[in-house]
Inverse folding.
């Protein structure tokens, strides 16, 4: 049996305040490995949200055709064209956390980049196509590092080799089963997101809104988790805080009705984080 903790301001973990002589070198370097051909939006959304939630440095390793558009949109991100996995190595060495998968695709290029990430010791977050590739072959998992998996119900069904209906019928148990099978922290997304780990720890987020049922909202969440890990939070705690501020920001967007774009979350997520965990003081 497990006890479920409902995420509220009283139960949420906190992000440490910044000391007055803080500098970007103390706030982590996040590497986003994302965006195969035709999916440059997913990688940019993830990298932007990581930057906007306070990571000290953000690098984006992506398919070459996305470099100029990404730089034009967000020049603070260090955007690198990567054609071969070997080109990832110097970036992996610098990273304090890696997010891999948004819009990555599942071709040979994507598979080789994922293999390079899995070999490193740095904490890593696997999302979207990284999860699809993992579901196809369990041996793709990292062997030396702590990791987070962020499936939506479709990806969760692939990871457990069952149906979406079965996942949704018992969401908490499904998250625990994935956590146990893959020895990871798991964020099972969708209405009332569940966070679980392999020690049967489980948290439930009751915030959020159907206005978030749109392209890219999960890519943004991956970037937020990466930002909080980069700034020093433990993996499970970072997931809880990220899920909560992402969902609360979604509720704020709901007042405008249908048609929210995932990038609209950035400003309200910053406000939520500041309200819960002020930067100084
Ligand atoms: N702008 C971009 O470049 C975007 C790229 N994206 C990328 O597109 C690729 C494919 O991802 P998709 O997620 O679209 O496709 P998937 O085939 O992985 O997932 C879609 C299916 O999952 C199930 N599902 C998902 N959420 C559910 C929920 N809450 N309840 C019940 N069932 C649910 C449904 O069966 C749905 O048809 C990924 O690499 C992703 O990162 C998307 O993130 C959309 C935006
Ligand atoms: N009906 C809903 N209620 C609450 N949150 C939702 C709802 N629909 C989607 N979300 C949230 O939006 C995000 C969608 O992620 P995902 O399905 O991975 O989208 P994408 O791959 O397009 O980025 C998740 O964080 C999920 O919890």
């Amino acid at each position: 049996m497990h006890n479920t903790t409902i995420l509220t301001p009283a139960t949420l973990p906190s992000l440490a305040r910044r000391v007055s002589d803080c500098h970007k070198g103390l706030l982590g370097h996040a590497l986003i490995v994302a965006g195969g051909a035709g999916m440059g939006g997913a990688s940019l959304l993830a990298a932007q949200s990581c930057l906007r939630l306070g990571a000290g440095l953000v690098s984006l390793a992506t398919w070459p055709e996305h470099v100029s558009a990404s730089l034009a949109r967000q020049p603070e991100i260090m955007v690198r064209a990567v054609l071969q996995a070997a080109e990832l190595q110097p970036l992996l060495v610098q990273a304090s956390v890696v997010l891999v998968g948004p819009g990555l695709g599942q071709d040979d290029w994507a598979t080789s980049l994922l293999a390079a990430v899995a070999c490193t010791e740095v904490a890593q977050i696997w999302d979207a196509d990284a999860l699809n590739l993992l579901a196809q072959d369990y041996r793709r998992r990292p062997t030396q590092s702590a990791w987070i998996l962020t499936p939506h119900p479709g990806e969760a069904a692939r990871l457990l080799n069952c149906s979406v209906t079965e996942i949704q019928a018992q969401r908490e148990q499904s998250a625990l089963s994935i956590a146990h099978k893959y020895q990871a922290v798991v964020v099972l997304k969708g209405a009332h997101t569940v966070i679980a780990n392999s020690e049967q720890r489980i948290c439930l987020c009751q915030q959020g809104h159907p206005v978030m049922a749109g392209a890219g909202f999960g890519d943004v969440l991956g970037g937020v988790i990466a930002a909080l890990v980069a700034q020093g939070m433990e993996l499970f705690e970072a997931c809880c805080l990220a899920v909560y501020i992402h969902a609360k920001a979604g509720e704020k967007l709901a007042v405008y009705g249908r048609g929210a774009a995932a990038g609209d979350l950035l400003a309200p997520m910053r406000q939520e984080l500041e309200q819960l965990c002020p930067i100084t003081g």
